[in-house]
Amino acid sequence: MHSFYNFVSGPLAWIAFLLFIGGSIFRIGRMLVLVAQKEPFIFTYMSWRYSFRSILHWIVPFATVNWRRQPVLTVVTFAFHLCLLAVPVFLLAHAVLWEDSFGIRWWSLPDTLADTLTVIVILGAVFFLVRRITRPEVRFVTSASDYVILAIVSAPFITGFLAYHQWFAYPLMMGLHVLAGDIMLAAIPFTRLSHMIFSPFTRAYMGSEFGKVRHARDW
Amino acid sequence: MAEPSKQEKTAVVDDGIDVGVSRLTEEKIQSVINSVIDNETGVRLKTYVETCIHCGLCSEACHYYLSHDKDPHYSPVGKVKQTIWEMIRKKGRVSPEFIRQAAIIAHTQCNLCKRCAQYCPFGIDIAYMMSIVRRIIHRLGVTPLYIQDTAHSHSVTMNQMWVKGDEWPDTLQWQEEEAQAEIPDLRIPLEKEGADIMYSVIAPEPKFQAQLLYQAAVIMHVAGVDWTMPASVGWDNSDMAMYTGDNEIMGRIKRAHFETAERLKVKKIVMGECGHAFRSVYDMGNRWLGWSMPPFTIVHAIEFYYDLIKAGRIQIARKFKPPVTLHDPCNVVRGAGLGEKARYVAHALCETVIEMYPNREHNYCCCAGGGVINTGPPFKMARVEGNRVKAEQLFETKTKGAEVLIAPCHNCHSGLEDIVHHYEIGLEIKFFSDIIYEVMEKPA
Amino acid sequence: MADPQSWDWETREKKIPLDAWKTEYRWVEEPYASPDGEKVAAVVNVDEGEFTVCVNGEAWGETVFDKIWHLRFSPDGRLTALVNEMGEWTMAIDGEAWENKFGYIWEPHYSADGSGIAAAVQQDMQYAMVLNGEPWETMFANMTYFALSPDGRHTAGAVQVVDVDSGEIHKFQEGTFTAALDGNAWDTRFVNVWNLAISPDGVHLAAEVRLNLYDYTIAVDGVPWDARYQTVWAPVFHPLTGGVVAPVREKGAWTLAQDGKPLWKRTFVQLWQQMFSPDGQRIAAIVAPKYGRWTVAVDGEPWPATFGKLVTDAVFSPDGRKVAALAKDGETFRVVVDGQPWSDAWDMAWKPVFGPDGKDVVAKVEKDHRYTYSLNNRVWRGTADAAWDPVFSPDGTRLLLRTVESGQYVRRVVPVSEMAG
């Protein structure tokens, strides 16, 4: 068991980080090369001002018409995504790892708070699952991959939660937790989790087209 | 997973689609789809497809979805799923029957109004994806008959309505003569090189609505505008080829339009109350030709009237009495930000303006635009029933007292006529120019 | 063309008052000046539905027409207009209407020497070209594009030869159009025919054609090139060899092709309005080397300077060594000669005019509704309410400037040295 943990948190973690960082750089680079090759006109219309105007509206809860139309979803999705980012980065146990591995130190979350945030992520995932199954307009466009990516995202949190509370076999759970984290990291650039890296660009482009050319709001 | 199957697949008879589909083979379908996707699309389509998280948040943006009791087949992403996703996933191996359905969806169940782009958290341009589908449908020769015929008219005459070379200047001279009965020295100056403004319209004006040319001439005359109209091709700014995905013809007719302005040495192009033509001239056609922005400043009628009223070049004798409401056309409000100027004009002309909700960029589409009304009678009811939500919005506004509906766009105008008639809403529909002509001070 | 040698290049200034016309007529339309500058004319309204043309203050012949439009001087100095009399239309030249009358007449064309004056006509909903008063013997159900040969002796049109009702899309797609030279239609049918060119010898006719909804090429005398393109633009004939050159689009990019074979090596985002130098040795075109940037390419090489809004009115010098054009950035135009933009920007500029030896370039320009001239990047001291293109004297030492100033038409002869100084 120990060797499993060492493997997933050692070489595999390195590979996962490499895939995540390298993959993300590759995907963004490829996107930009494709723009230059096939749709160079896009650069003509990009505007920092309108890109950020659009991004800003969409990353603030209730700042857009659609966020206001969907209050429950808005609360859940913002909570889910915030916690999803905050916990891996600021959890005390992770902060120790950051320092051990990369020699970087930063502020960390108190454990009980991190635990709450983890529960929020898990509940958020449950909400998305239920929404996907029960809402006809979501179910209609759902494919197996949607469940897979939901599982990939929730697995590190479920296993982390179980490990933290030591409800099942702690060493196994710890190993699984790290493995799940590795998988999620590695999957981000290569699945539709890539919306994490692409959405700022799609948003910025639409924001620029709306702001600079169409003189209209895109929110 | 069981999918809701509320959407009725009624057999529509359209010779453009039916004959086209009957000539298809699976090999041809595959080669055309892959050719369009590989050679004519790039990072946008790829990124949009890979970034969409299938959340369905675009659904409530769509009037078809809302009007069909939230049938997911009509949600923007639902239409994407039924068309381009499937084509990409199967690498083009789809059946002729699939293509028939894709043609119906892309041509008659989406107005390309881009409201959904305002509802997608990622700003995914679903209308663009529907345009790609229409491009594929064009390349397969399955475009609905009426709009294909219109594209043919564009290709032959450079106008939308098969108006022949002589009929255009003849109509202008006839309208000039009519207007001279009211204002004896009024002119419609043809081919006046070096005028400040070229005024361009869509072909339905000379064909069916010549009074709009008359009204425009009176407004120009009273305001003392130095204007001209061409007597050659290039006078028509409309563009259904843009909506059939016949980009080559789109480029050709836009080139004719811009080069006519070049030839006449005008400084601006002012266009009548039409939305799709604005989109074509300002956003789509110019880009295909390599102009990042149009070579001439394009002034839509709303902005033109705004400028004239603001500068006091036309005076209002007495404001229009019946309470009005204002429909925001997608192509000039979501597409050009003219919502506030439209309101300024409406308030300057009318005593009472009652807002409909939602409005401005969030207004519901007329369901006629994007070439949908141009698919003609076979799809008229699809368009009218597909916009029950507009009827509800209008009815609500009527209960607040509105009697007249201002629709500063030709397609909106015609589409709303059908909706007002079908749902028996009882609103009179007018262009701004109808009201300006009625209330402005004219020489005695 | 009237021989500029015989024009008055000595008198510095001649004036014709225009303001008086306004008192004489109900309204006076925009004036036109003759090429030699000796005459100025405008359509004037005599009374309700009664029009004539006022030339140098005199009415135009005896006839009063029901309607007159498209008043223009032909290059040889004859004054032409489209006129309506008793419900019938024709062309009138120096006040005399052609004997043949039509249901409608429009889009007059003039050959460079003015000997050929042509227009499109409609009679009983049938269409033809008319040249110097004589219409084609054959009429067609529709005619959409028109051409006059360089020597002014032949006319052509894109004509519909198979009747098709609106809505018959599949019949239309089988081909209902062709082109006709002097009324003789080709045997081949095309979906579309656009932008015709007649060879310098008047024998051959080239046109853009669409073979089906997707394939475009150039057809010469009814025979399409073997090559198929995504689309094509208007062909031109080589002035000496008779080869046909047209911009063609392949794989989303434009280049120039001659007789169906690539002519230029590189491709452009856009390429059109190609033109040969007078000796046929060089070819220039307006191009977009990259998206949203415009310039002129000569023999396939674009000028390094590019412009954002528009490049238009390109012209070769008579010796073929220089090219001038107009470039628009933002809302203003500049004259550009061999890629060098002049310093002054204008609200509008007109096609640059080269002197006979190609050294001097002058253009009519306008700012804030005041017209003037710019010669070799130096602005003329005078301004005017209206102006016409400048004309060089045959020896290139003087310029004929035609303007309207304070209600007077002014014909000026200005030494080039004076304007440049």
Helical proportion of chain C? under 10%
Categorize the overall geometry of chain A.
Answer: globular
The tally of beta strands of chain C, per DSSP, is 44
Question: Major sheet of chain C, described briefly?
Answer: 5 strands, antiparallel
Please, could you describe this protein's structure?
- The complex is a heterotrimer of chains A (219), B (444) and C (421).
- Chain A has helices at residues 2-9, 11-38, 41-45, 48-58, 65-69, 71-90, 92-102, 111-134, 136-139, 144-165, 170-187, 195-213.
- Chain A is mainly alpha-helical and 219 residues long.
- In chain A, helix 10 (144-165) packs antiparallel against helix 11.
- With 444 residues, chain B is mostly helical.
- Chain B folds into three domains: 15-143, Orthogonal Bundle (Fumarate Reductase Iron-sulfur Protein, Chain B, domain 2), CATH 1.10.1060; 155-310, no CATH class; 324-439, 3-Layer(aba) Sandwich (Rossmann fold).
- In chain B, 51% of the residues lie in helices and 5% in strands.
- Chain B has helices at residues 15-22, 26-40, 43-51, 63-67, 76-89, 96-108, 126-140, 145-157, 167-180, 204-207, 210-223, 241-244, 247-264, 276-289, 301-310, 330-334, 339-349, 380-385, 388-399, 410-422, 432-439; strands at residues 197-200, 227-228, 268-271, 297-300, 324-326, 404-406, 428-430.
- In chain B, helix 6 crosses helix 7 (126-140).
- Chain B starts with 14 loop residues before the first helix and ends in a 5-residue tail after the last helix.
- Residues 1-5 of chain B have low confidence and may be disordered.
- The two termini of chain C are 31 Å apart.
- Chain C contains three helices and 44 strands.
- In chain C, the strands form ten sheets. In chain C, strands 1, 41, 42, 43 and 44 form a five-stranded antiparallel β-sheet that branches. In chain C, strands 2, 3, 4, 5 and 6 form a five-stranded antiparallel β-sheet that branches. In chain C, strands 23, 24, 25, 26 and 27 form a five-stranded antiparallel β-sheet that branches.
- Chain C has a domain at 1-101.
- Helix content of chain C is 4%, strand content 50%.
- Classes of the chains: A mainly alpha (219), B mainly alpha (444), C mainly beta (421).
- Chains in contact: A-B, A-C, B-C.
- Chains A and B meet through helix 2, helix 3, helix 5, helix 9 and helix 12 of A and helix 3 and helix 5 of B.
